[in-house]
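Comment on the following before class.
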Amino acid sequence: MKIIFVGTAHPYRGGLAAFNERLADQFRKEGHDVEIYTFTLQYPGFLFPGKTQFTDDPAPEGLKIQRRINSCNPLNWISVGREIRKKNADMVVFAYWMSFMAPCFGTIAREVKRNHHTKCIGLIHNMIPHEPNMLDKLFPGYFVKAMDGFTTLSQAVIADIEKFDHKGKPKSWAPHPIYDHYGELIDKTEARRALGLDENGRYVLFFGFIRDYKGLDLLIDAFGDPKLQDTGARLLVAGEFYGDPKPYHDRISSLDINDIVVLHNDYIPDSKVNLYFRACDIVAQPYKTATQSGVTQVAFHFEKPMLVTNVGGLPEIVPDGKIGYVVEPDAQAISDALVRYYDEAREEAFTEGVREEKKKYGWDRMTAAVMKNM
């Protein structure tokens, strides 16, 4: 089949770009002709809270990536749609994650489908964003109406799509596959040495862009618990602030835990992701809301136990007591679970559980889920 992806990709950075590239590569490995259409302008500057939208990492090998789409220019959407329409692809996959993209993607899809051949499939990471705004009522319906079917990464997102889809279009889902392209499973001591951490310490990792819904404040509060402090654990925060960092710094200072919180608050390039995951004992995702999370799948790859909160699709993929803990989004519940983890020496047993559980999350399951809508 001829398959075209529309969405973020190199030179843009982040988990969504990584996902699109890895899924496109899986289709390529399965024998399909694949290319990606990505942005010349992804976000206007005022909508992007980070330092830069771009990565310094090299482009993925073997993938054809076209930079064509200006997310703010309707004339561009029409011209890109016509360009893709002429390629007569069997399927165009729109990797959708926020309402801002709905007019752009919806218009491109309408132009593409005028060839009466191409199927347009929405690959939906989030139908309703973690931090909703007025656009989430106005725009998604326009995009949904232009799709022929949908694939999601959790059942929760299917329910969100159905709020906008009144025609019962085909929907499928598969769990978020494992990110397996972030490097080797190096020794814990080697990773800590590379990061300048105590080789004999205990570290709980919070990884990724820092936004309110991800609950870093809850995790910081958990480390204010004397019982958790008595375990000797430290909090390692690796990721860029997408918002004002002051409330987090103030919280750390007010709890007097500066000496047990290690902040590495720059964007973590792909080449260093393995250092952070291999250096820690357990990965914490204290999210207040969620659908699914790419961090979980990176943790699977690096065979790390996890603590997640009981929100969205996270409990679907982290069996409580087998590979980690599922707790309520509450600082005391988080602290109690981490205390149990260290006091009961669960790392080895949970790691073995992760090795067994990760077998479920191949990229071929995601390609199969997308193909169900054809």
Observations:
- Residues 15-29 form the longest helix (15 residues).
- The chain is about 40% helix and 20% strand.
- The mean pLDDT is 94.
- The radius of gyration is 21 Å.
